[in-house]
UniProtKB/TrEMBL annotation:
Reactions it catalyzes: Hydrolysis of terminal, non-reducing beta-D-mannose residues in beta-D-mannosides
Pfam (any one): Glyco_hydro_2_N2
Name of the protein: beta-mannosidase
Classification via InterPro entries: Beta-gal/glucu_dom_sf, Beta-mannosidase-like_N2, Beta-mannosidase_GH2, Galactose-bd-like_sf, GH, Ig-like_fold
Gene3D superfamilies: Galactose-binding domain-like (2.60.120.260), Glycosidases (3.20.20.80), Immunoglobulins (2.60.40.10)
UniProt KW keywords: Glycosidase, Hydrolase
Ranges for domain Beta-mannosidase-like galactose-binding: 37-191
UniProt EC number: 3.2.1.25
Length: 870
């Protein structure tokens, strides 16, 4: 009889068991004999249930974070009933895919599970506890805040950057707040729960590895089974003419395998193990996005009992590729170069945090929106940061499908972690589970022990503070590499990020991976040019969210950079001071709020684009840059390129431009200037580079044409003649380096905008209908720097309404209006006099063209000129 699964997601109710519940909510949350309690959704969390019941305000608005902090101090209990009847199976397991976090589970009043780890699943044999008829299931959560504080007393205080001891509980660290994140202190049954009924045996673990071999490949499947009874286990391996012992079969479907029977193989179970190897004569290679296709193969794994019937089944979707990181020392230190299918890959990466501070709200559709935005920005790698969560299967499956490489941190971040029990065993259990779960994904190219803990131990005063206490070294240098070697030998492992492979300082520039934060914290972003790291795993710059996101979430009147709601939505230490200090070398601080907002967004985009062009220009010495960060988990001023309402910030356009398949940038070299041409495609790139020094009015002051050819996935450097690289008037001249046939262009300005003679932008705007939205043609009458359309400000509903005449008021968002959705993937465009840029603005509505006058509004059509010209 095959294993059956029954979801237990219905009929749940939530009540507050103990803790500081506000008096106004006490009756609604008491769950007393009157039956008062809140309907609960499973999977879900306390916050989403209270929101659905209209008992709390949106935690992301204004200062509701502090208003709702009591939730994390409360013990919460979920309860449901379900009907059960014996069905002939030998074994019945209660399975929780995720509990957040410290919970006691009771079935019919009997404790069946004590859980204390958000990052793992739980399975409990309840065959002796189930009752025929109605069964009562209760999950009682302890306050995560009070539990973490109590555990910190047990383990002893350890260094960390934030007040609450997140290192003392196996729960998402950023759930306690971060320098971009709201503290939510969630509790709940955050992943599915079910009853699994089975007989004889089940698949406890299936590890699938796809290895290319010439034109074909090999699939190795290692299976561990669990027996329903000791008697069944004792009978394993016995065979006769009528019946045979349980055996495992494997079948593979995928590209190039033809129309005949699927390739398959099988093996008997010996003890609790089986290993099946299947050779395929043809197997197409899986490649990162931008390097080839992403063919995938479905591996069907079945456990059979007596005769052909199936006891249990599972599947994995795999891709054939090889992966390694080249860390062989060279004359300049130690590289950190990703090699996929024997091809060095320049990593164009971004760091990922949980996409919502209430992660249960992130479904497959939302993952897909975010990851497709990453691909559209020319990214090829996403690093899942160690202070968040192991994301759902949907995340990794989409990365496989899209060709987005994944770098997965184990969940340890910016703190010293105890190695004592019970944490020690919990860490091993979660690591074993997650390695097995993730290792078959072709997108997975690196497992990393932690974020910044090796660096912290060396440089942040931890050694004195710890005074001999454990801090996590056992996990990073012993446990994790040992488990990876046991369970996933094909997956590379690094003890930390940053990390130097041969014992050097963990953040040493010539070796391995590096995090660069001095620019944001203390220096100007121009100093990125002072560094030539081998691989940059973190760096970034702050900027506010989209204007419509900001005014939706902060209701301050007046709204200013320092108004109370703005400060609540700025989590970085001295964040606004750093924003100002980072702006002043480039622009003056604007007087009005909306222009301040644009200035800070533009400076963020310019800082990161400047750095990325610099790092990319040094390939193959530098072979990757991973921007902090792709996404936000709520509306906040942060380092993200996509804000908490899923809107693109100008930074996204900067990343997209710097990581384009073919780029030209102008860089300082040997006391002069050079044009560096980057070709991240599989074809040679020959052409002619036209290099000019121009005045701001477009007059050509000096010019050269230079032929070039760039090999596939390579760079070429073209020295710029001294008469072009030397300005006559630094405040009013620039250098352009343009590919004659295709138009890729790099720019060099001799002076910062604030010290230049940029004039007010003279622009004309035309619109026309286009597939998917409105084509916007913007023509410059003079030099216009960093042109952007902040189309989130448009009231699309009004602009597409025939009753609203051209140019009438009401087309822009303010704090009281609903936001019409519009976006463009074009931005940060610099136009020389007479040039035209085309923006495709995508918007809702089946038909209609956006009004040119509304698009030309100076609040929507933004440029650097607005921050300079008087």
């Amino acid at each position: 009889m095959p294993l059956s699964r029954r979801d237990l997601h219905d009929g749940w109710r939530l009540r507050a068991a103990a803790g500081p519940v506000p008096a106004a909510l006490a009756d609604a949350l008491s769950g007393d004999a009157t039956g008062a309690a809140v309907p609960a959704t499973v999977p879900g969390c306390v916050h989403t249930d209270l929101l659905a019941a209209d008992l709390i305000p949106d935690p992301y608005l204004d200062d509701h974070e502090s208003l709702l902090a009591w939730i994390g101090q409360v013990d919460w209990t979920y309860e449901t009933t379900f009907d059960w009847r014996p069905d002939g199976h030998e074994r019945h397991d209660l399975v929780f895919d995720g509990l957040d976090t410290v919970a006691t589970v009771r079935l019919n009043g009997r404790v069946v599970l004590e859980a204390a780890n958000q990052h793992r699943s739980y399975r409990v044999d309840v065959r002796d506890v189930l009752a025929e008829g109605e069964n009562t299931l209760e999950v009682a959560f302890r306050s995560p805040v009070r539990y973490a504080n109590a555990q910190s007393l047990e383990f002893g205080a350890r260094p960390r950057p934030y007040p609450l001891p997140y290192e003392a509980i196996r729960k998402s660290a950023c759930n306690f707040g971060w320098d971009w994140g709201i503290a939510t202190y969630t509790s709940g049954i955050w992943r599915p729960v079910r009853l699994e009924s089975w007989s004889t045996a089940r698949l406890a673990e299936a590890r699938v590895v796809a290895t290319p071999d010439g034109d074909g490949g090999t699939i190795d499947v290692d299976v561990t089974i669990e027996w329903a009874t000791d008697a069944a286990s004792a009978g394993a391996g016995a065979t006769d003419a009528v019946a045979r012992a349980p055996f495992v079969s494997v079948a593979v479907a995928g590209p190039g395998l033809g129309d005949g029977p699927l390739p398959s193989a099988m093996d008997d179970v010996e003890g609790d193990r089986a290993r099946v190897t299947l050779a395929l004569p043809k197997a197409e290679r899986w490649w990162p996005v931008g390097h080839g296709g992403q063919p995938r193969y479905v591996v069907d794994v079945r456990l059979h009992g007596d005769g052909p019937h199936t006891l249990d089944a599972t599947h994995r979707v795999v891709g054939f590729r090889t992966v390694r990181w080249d860390t062989e020392p060279d004359a300049e230190g130690t590289p950190f170069t990703l090699v996929v299918n024997d091809r060095p890959i320049f990593v164009k990466g971004v760091n990922w945090i949980p996409d919502d501070a209430l992660p249960v709200r992130v479904d497959r559709a939302r993952y897909e929106r975010r990851l497709r935005q990453a691909v559209a920005a020319n990214l090829n790698l996403v690093r899942v940061w160690g202070g968040g969560i192991y994301e759902s299967e949907d995340f990794y499956d989409l990365c496989d499908e899209l060709g987005l490489l994944t770098w997965q941190d184990f969940l340890f971040a910016c703190a010293a972690y105890p190695e004592e029990e019970p944490l020690r065993s919990e860490v091993e259990a979660e690591a074993r589970e997650q390695i097995v779960r993730l290792a078959s994904h072709p997108s997975l190219v690196l497992l990393t022990g932690n974020n910044e803990n090796l660096w912290g131990y060396e440089d942040w005063g931890w050694k004195q503070y710890l005074d001999g206490k454990t801090w996590g070294a056992y996990y990073y240098h012993d446990l994790f590499p040992r488990l990876v070697a046991e369970l996933a030998t094909h997956v590379p492992y690094s003890p930390g990020s940053p990390f130097s492979p041969n014992g050097e300082h963990p953040n040493a520039e010539p070796h391995g991976t590096m995090h660069l934060w001095e620019q944001w914290n203390r220096q100007d972003w121009l100093t990125y040019h002072d560094h030539r790291p081998r691989f940059v795993a973190e760096f970034g710059w702050q900027g506010p969210p989209a204007w419509s996101t900001l005014v939706r979430s902060v209701s301050d009147d007046p709204l200013t950079p320092e108004s109370p709601g703005m400060i609540v939505h700025q989590k970085a230490m001295e964040g606004n001071v750093k924003l100002t200090n980072g702006l002043l070398p480039h622009f003056r601080v604007p007087a009005d709020m909306e222009t301040w907002h644009w200035a800070m967004q533009l400076n963020q985009a310019n800082a990161v684009r400047f750095a990325l062009e610099h790092f990319r220009s040094w390939a193959p010495h530098t072979m990757g840059a991973v921007v902090w960060q792709l996404n936000d988990c709520w509306p906040v001023t942060s380092w993200a390129a996509i804000d908490g309402d899923e809107r693109l910030k100008p930074l996204w356009h900067g990343i997209r431009a710097a990581f384009a398949p073919r780029v030209v940038s102008v860089q300082p070299r040997d006391g002069g200037l050079a044009a560096v041409i980057g070709n991240d495609t599989d074809a040679p790139w020959p052409g002619e580079l036209v290099v000019r020094r121009l005045s701001f009015d477009g007059a050509v002051l000096a010019e050269r044409s230079v032929p070039f050819e760039v090999e596939p996935y390579g760079n070429a450097t073209v020295a710029i003649a001294a008469d072009i690289a030397t300005p006559g008037d630094a405040s009013a001249e620039l250098v352009t380096a343009t590919v004659a046939a295709s138009g890729e262009r790099g720019l060099w300005f001799f002076a910062e905008p604030r010290d230049s003679r940029l004039e007010s932008a003279r622009l004309s705007v035309e619109t026309a209908p286009a597939d998917g939205g409105t084509a916007v043609l913007v023509t410059a009458g003079n030099l216009v720097r960093d042109l952007c359309l902040l189309v989130d400000k448009l009231r699309v509903d009004k602009l597409l309404d025939p009753a609203v005449g051209s140019g009438e008021s009401g087309g822009l968002v303010d704090k009281s209006t609903a936001v019409g959705e519009a976006y463009t993937e074009d931005g940060l465009v610099t136009l020389l006099p007479g040039e035209t840029a085309r923006f495709l603005v995508r918007h809702g509505g089946d038909a209609g063209t956006l009004d040119a006058a509304a698009l030309a509004d100076q609040r929507v059509l933004r440029s650097a000129n607005q921050l300079v010209a008087g």
